[in-house]
Amino acid sequence: xxxxxxxxxxxxxxxxxxxxxxxxxxxxxxxxxxxxxxxxxxxxxxxxxxxxxxxxxxxxxxxxxxxxxxxxxxxxxxxxxxxxxxxxxxxxxxxxxxxxxxxxxxxxxxxxxxxxxxxxxxxxxxxxxxxxxxxxxxxxxxxxxxxxxxxxx
Length: 153
Description:
By secondary structure, the protein is mostly helical. The chain has helices spanning 10-17, 21-29, 49-61, 66-73, 84-117; strands spanning 7-8, 36-37, 43-46.
């Protein structure tokens, strides 16, 4: 069996990762992945870049920003391929942030259910949560859906 190449072209990385070459160039521009260049200027990626790309895609899927992803990837070693322990440490650091986002989404879901459940479908006219549009004093937007607590009553 032939050994796998240690370097991938952008086309090979694209085929293996399922991302367009334009997305890979964008990731490189954003500092999420890195390539070396051949004498002819062609990009070559270490095989370990496949894991980084997978990590970036997963992180984006759960709603993390490019800056959050970039910061996390900066904690990984440059001189060697990250180990399972390296990846585990990185994901442990994200757990509180992901848990907080889950709580925010659950709260939003619950607020949407209670708002729509009243039947009026309008916070402006809602006699249960926002009589006389008193939430307007708290600022623009749907204040109760954005996290403000409605008054007791």
